[in-house]
């Protein structure tokens, strides 16, 4: 059964997010961020009236036009709230779904797994001119970035929130493994192409590892910017949890 304080919990998360990201350069940012992490770590699927499943048929209607019309998407999004300083919502992934490698320009972010298991690969972009060698010929025509591949870890509801900042772990890829998964997501500030915060997708420029084990991390890699993958799109569906007031 949901806990008695479920409404106050998600409300407190939203209020703390508003307080934290109102002044991300202020002296109290670190303390406020830590408090937000603590609150986010308490959230469970039942607090948001969610049971383990992937995107629903309702998300197919909101997935866009052809060729996706009527097709249940691999990923769907439940909008909870948004201000000029942050957005909050829930992503649902079907088993095996992947949110491709993408960036969050100038943004902070936090995600908390609500059910299932996610494999999250995190990277940092490196300054222009930091590369010791030119990009490989396989780069093609897309813009290339040198990046630091920092980590690839599994996250479950027992894991602490996964964090990103403008300079650390700002690029990530998210895969649902061994069943459907969902996570609560906070981005600050929200994506906004008019203010230079558009989402860019990337592909790792390296082949499969020659041995049984992948190369050790962290390591420097080349990325190439790509269009959104043809087999990835995100539908929308109603958020069933307690309403948030800001």
Automatic annotation (TrEMBL):
Coiled coil: none annotated. It comes from the Eukaryota. Keywords: Dioxygenase, Iron, Metal-binding, Oxidoreductase. SUPFAM superfamilies: RmlC-like cupins. One of its GO terms (molecular function) is metal ion binding. GO terms for cellular component: mitochondrion. Gene3D superfamilies: Jelly Rolls. InterPro entries: PCO/ADO (IPR012864), RmlC-like_jellyroll (IPR014710), RmlC_Cupin_sf (IPR011051). Pfam families: PCO_ADO (PF07847). Transmembrane segments: none annotated. This is 2-aminoethanethiol dioxygenase. The gene is ADO.
């Amino acid at each position: 059964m949901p806990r008695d304080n479920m409404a106050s919990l998600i409300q407190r998360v939203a209020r703390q997010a508003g307080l934290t990201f109102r002044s991300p350069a202020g002296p109290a940012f670190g303390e406020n961020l830590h408090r937000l992490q603590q609150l986010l770590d308490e959230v469970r699927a039942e607090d948001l009236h969610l049971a383990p499943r992937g995107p629903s048929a309702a998300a197919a209607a909101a997935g866009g036009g052809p060729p996706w019309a009527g097709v249940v998407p691999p990923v769907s999004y439940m909008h909870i709230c948004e201000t000029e300083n942050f957005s909050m919502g829930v992503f649902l992934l079907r088993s095996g779904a992947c949110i491709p490698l993408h960036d969050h320009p100038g943004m902070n972010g936090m995600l908390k797994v609500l059910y299932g298991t996610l494999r999250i690969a995190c990277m940092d972009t490196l300054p222009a001119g930091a590369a010791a060698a030119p990009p490989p010929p396989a780069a093609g025509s897309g813009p290339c970035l040198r990046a630091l591949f920092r980590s690839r870890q599994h996250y479950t509801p027992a894991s602490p929130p996964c964090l990103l900042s403008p300079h650390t772990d700002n690029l990530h890829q998210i895969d649902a493994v061994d069943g459907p998964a969902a996570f609560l997501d906070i981005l600050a500030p929200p994506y906004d192409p008019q203010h230079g915060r558009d989402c860019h997708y990337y592909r790792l420029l390296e082949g499969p590892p020659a041995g049984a084990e992948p190369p050790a991390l962290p390591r420097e890699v080349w990325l190439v910017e790509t269009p959104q993958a043809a087999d990835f799109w995100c539908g929308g569906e109603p958020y069933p949890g307690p309403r948030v007031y800001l």
